[in-house]
Design brief:
Blueprint (H helix, E strand, L loop, with lengths): L1 E5 L4 H11 L5 E7 L13 E3 L3 H5 L4 E4 L3 H14 L3 E3 L6 H10 L4 E4 L5 H16 L4 E8 L9 H13 L4 H4 E3 L13 E7 L6 E8 L2 E8 L4 H14 L5 E3 L1 H4 L4
Helix pairs in contact: 1-8, 3-4, 5-6
Amino acid sequence: MKLAICGAAGRMGRAIIAIAKEDSEIQISGALEYEGSKAIGAGSPIISSDNDLENILKNTDALIDFTNPESALKNLELAVKQKVPTAIGTTGFSEEQKMKIAEAARIIPIVFSPNMSVGVNILFKLVEEAAKKMSDYDIEIVEFHHNKKKDSPSGTAAKLAEVAASSVGRDINEVGVYGRRCAFSARKKDEIGVLSVRAGDIVGDHTVYFAGPGERIELTHRAHSRDTFAAGAVRAAKWVVGKKPGLYDMSDVLSLK
């Protein structure tokens, strides 16, 4: 399978390249960075400018994108044009941008997930089940990431909040509280709090708290290495090839539905 990777010089991109190189079923057709990136040609001859993407996609079976929302949508337009199945791990999309991804999924198959690790996607499932059983408990989410991460909350934390809210019949857009600073207002019963910590070189920790009278349950996922996300992304790219057009996530890839 011929695989193209956008965002190749980033933390995730480098990890994906390393995983893909070890997979005998994969040939890297292109590893791309934005035009003008200092990484292009710097010790990595396979890294090309994103201006080369259209030509590279003509000889590619699947695309993985870990860039930023604006770049990801531009790359997706080219993938649609060339009918190339795509796995998107980029986070920070607005609702309007997510709608554009959904529209593209009418033409090509897309795996769109804020976190592609096996463990985190099992965590999504556990949170869904726990929330249904503890709908009257307070739900709070705390996530930790390295100090270079640009978006907050993380895409994974946002997804956890969405899953929890949906499971108890709430709209996260109405009950979500991101960070908390208030002097004269107690926590509202239906709130779902999401707090972000940015420090050091933390790969990614997520904990969902269910707190009730006299007890609490904590569901935690800690990433020890980006390799777990990279392996999931490669797995998603291999899975999406040959699928019908549609918008998929990692629960489809992992048969968790």
